[in-house]
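pasting for ref
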Amino acid sequence: MKTLWHTLVACCTALLAFAGFAGLAYRTFDDGGWMATLAERGALYGLAHPYATTLGGFLALGLFVTLRRGAACERVSFVLVYALMATGAYFIGHLLLYGVP
């Protein structure tokens, strides 16, 4: 019984994470999606404020490297998986309620 429960939880986790990843990919690469908007606004902001853009990039890189060390890495990975699962639940609910991605 315990094995069946673990298998069910793992399947639900995989389904929600896949739905979250697919929904984010759809919203990112769709025409007029997040990537197009970010490229539009980011390019304009990067040209207008090159020092702030460079500093922000270095801060993001430093944060990434810092959080990958030790036990914090395990916590960050759990938070990312749970966030992806929550995103998947949102996209599945949105699809069921409104019928559009």
